[in-house]
Amino acid sequence: MKIYLTGLVSLALLCSCSFYGTRPDEIKPQAKALPVPIVKPEPSPGSVWLGESSRNMLFTDNKARYVNDIVTIIIDESSSGQNQASTNTSKNSASNSDISAFLGVETSITNANPNMGGKIAVGGSSVSTLKGEGDTSRGGKLQARLTARVVKVLDNGNLLIEGRRQLTLNAEDQFLVITGVIRSEDIMADNWVLSSNMADARIVYTGSGILADKQHPGWMTRVLDWGWPF
Question: Does the pTM exceed 0.70?
Answer without folding.
Answer: no
